[in-house]
Specification:
The protein has helices at about 35-45, 45-50, 85-90, 110-125, 135-150, 165-170, 185-195, 210-215, 215-225, 240-255, 275-280, 305-315, 325-340, 345-360, 380-385, 400-405; strands at about 5-10, 15, 30-35, 80-85, 95-100, 130-135, 150-160, 175-180, 200, 230-235, 265-270, 320-325, 370-375. By secondary structure, the protein is of the alpha/beta class. Bound molecules: pyridoxal-5'-phosphate and zinc ion.
């Protein structure tokens, strides 16, 4: 790879050659891929990018750690829409708010960006089998992306994973191990199994290439904003790989001189499981917490990528905010009503955080803010249905409809009177 120099441990600084099967440092620290930006500047400019027709994460190939001859995996991942959310901005008293809807990815979460990278690197490694442990989305996205590429998967999920995600796994033909225990125990079992059978490892806190896939969300946001840097980017945090990846993408653009300043990150966690934010707020090391939230994708009591996440939040002079399950579900409805975007609970946690910080006056009204929706609401309809009112349920005749409208005080608006 001409664009990559090496991989470097974020804890001890030791460097490694960037082979496809890289895992963690000897010291246990997580590795970070280091690029040759001077070389990249000679092969990629904002203008070349603007002419590119590839509307997927692979449009940033020169900034990704793959060999030139490595084919992009089959599913179309990335280049998700960035919506200007005017109605929601008005509700929150914000000058500019954008929603990056990553729920539209092929398996309906941002995790597809990492899984596509895993499939590309597994191919380079000559592997036929990939494995991971996951709260759900990493699993379903790996299963889908691997299926499309003709690879086999072994997946470890905690038994609490919502049905939508399990349905995806089974449909994509993964071998699924549902662990009767916490995510922590699930991760540990997958670690042992991967060691035992030598599967390609798609655990984002072990395999340093996966954050590089996730960073494309940051590259896209800036390209879609025509390189106008927003003041804040809010995102939900579990293991910490996603926020770290987002930050890496932004720093890449800064290193290339394509942007002249960096946004501040907003790290949003569930109040019932917020070890990363607690570490930032207390200035101490992170400590494990219980996994006490319905936002299953970020119910991570022992964050596996705390080092990179904490570094990203601190470097960006980021804000932290913790939101209750009620605030998450309220944000899900508010986003749906004002923007037509349906996110899963962890998917809208970032938006819940933006709302809370606006109300607390911690985001100034003249700020521009991007909120990343990290997963689709269709993944977990049970929680959404429980948080919403019942629909009008009646027999199929007009008399029943008129009666039901009358009972609810609905005077139906007629478009006919406008003609
Ligand atoms: C995985 C996930 C996150 C958090 O990503 P981490 O890398 O675990 O911090 C947030 N939202 C959704 C929908 C996810 O699947
Ligand atoms: Zn190290």
């Amino acid at each position: 790879m001409k664009n990559v120099l090496h991989a470097k441990c974020v804890r001890c600084g030791r460097t490694y050659e960037a082979i496809p099967t890289l895992t963690t440092c000897q010291c246990g620290g997580i590795l970070d891929i280091v690029y040759d930006y001077e070389h990249i500047k000679t092969v990629l400019t904002r203008e070349t990018l603007a002419r590119r027709r590839d509307n997927s994460m692979w449009r940033y190939r020169e900034l990704l750690p793959v060999e030139e001859e490595t084919e992009a995996p089959p599913l179309r991942v990335g280049w998700s829409p960035l919506y200007r959310a005017r109605a929601l901005a008005e509700r929150l008293g914000l000058r500019a708010l954008y929603i990056k809807d990553d729920g539209i990815n092929p398996t309906a979460s941002l995790k597809d960006r990492a899984s596509a990278m895993a499939v590309a690197k597994a191919r380079e490694a000559g592997a036929r089998v990939i494995a991971c442990s996951s709260t759900g989305n990493a699993a379903s996205s790996l299963a889908g992306n691997a299926a499309a590429a003709g690879m086999e998967t072994y997946i470890f999920v905690p038994s609490r994973a919502p049905k939508g995600k399990v349905a995806q796994l089974m449909t994509f033909g993964a071998t699924v191990v549902s662990v009767q225990g916490s995510y922590e125990e699930t991760f540990e079992l997958s670690r042992q199994a991967i060691g035992r059978w030598g599967w390609y490892n798609r655990n984002a806190a072990v395999n340093p290439y996966l954050s590089e896939g996730k960073k494309t969300v940051g590259l896209e946001i800036l390209e879609q904003l025509d390189w106008q840097v927003p003041d804040f980017i809010a995102i939900s945090v579990g293991d910490g790989c996603t926020i770290a990846g987002l930050w890496k993408g932004l720093k890449d653009l800064y290193a290339l001189g394509w942007i002249d300043r960096l946004p501040r990150l907003i790290s949003v966690q569930a109040a019932g499981c917020c070890p990363i934010n607690r570490a930032i707020e207390s200035g101490e090391d992170w400590r494990p917490m219980e996994e006490n939230t319905l936002a299953d994708s970020i119910a991570v009591g022992v964050p596996r990528n705390a080092d990179k996440a904490l570094q990203a939040i601190r470097e960006s002079r980021g804000l932290t905010v913790n939101v209750s399950d009620e605030e998450i579900m309220a944000a899900q409805k508010l986003l749906g009503r004002t923007s037509g975007v349906f996110g899963e609970p962890a998917g809208v946690t970032g938006t819940a955080g933006v709302k809370k910080l606006c109300e607390q006056g911690k985001i100034p009204p003249d700020a521009s803010v991007v909120s990343v929706v990290t997963g689709s609401g269709l993944k977990d309809v049970a929680n959404a249905i429980a948080a919403c009112p019942e629909p009008i349920s009646i027999p199929g005749d007009m008399a029943s409809l008129l009666e039901a409208f009358a009972a609810r005080g609905i005077s139906a608006y007629s478009n006919l009177s406008n003609r």
